[in-house]
Amino acid sequence: MAKASIPYANATSGVAARTEITNILRRFGCSNVGFMDDYEHHEVLLAFEHRGNRVQLRASAKGWASMFLKAEPWTPQRRSTRQQYEQAALDKGLVAVNSVLRDWVKGQITAVETGVLSFAGVFLPYMIAADGRPLLEHIQAAKLLPSPVEGNND
Fold this sequence. Notes:
The chain has helices spanning about 15-30, 60-70, 80-115, 120-125, 135-140, and strands at about 30-40, 45-50, 55-60. By secondary structure, it is of the alpha+beta class. Strands 1-2-3 form a 3-stranded antiparallel sheet. Strand 2 (about 45-50) and strand 3 form a beta hairpin. The two termini are about 25 Å apart.
């Protein structure tokens, strides 16, 4: 089902990527690191705490699955129904998302460690506010940013 030109299509297990994320964050000084699979919404939740700052972000397998299905659409010649094929793409997306997160975390932590960006500059949208919601949700609810332009992946 996987094609090499699709990023992370060859990912086979999220376990190794999660282990690497945990190791990166622990070396950086995070006191808590955890993952949760949300099968209903097809998301992986990454949560960690650094110097009292709680961070929580959700990575959607739907985006990866959509990219995959665009590159490798279902056809009647497939050995599965359209629904089975699309579900398999979502399942593969849940694995791929872990590798995407690993590379993202590695890049962000490297940027912070080298002084390219500050911790807040990188993770502020995902920091948990006093009401338990990420700041990004407050920003979106207050409409502090313009609506995304059609065709952007924001």
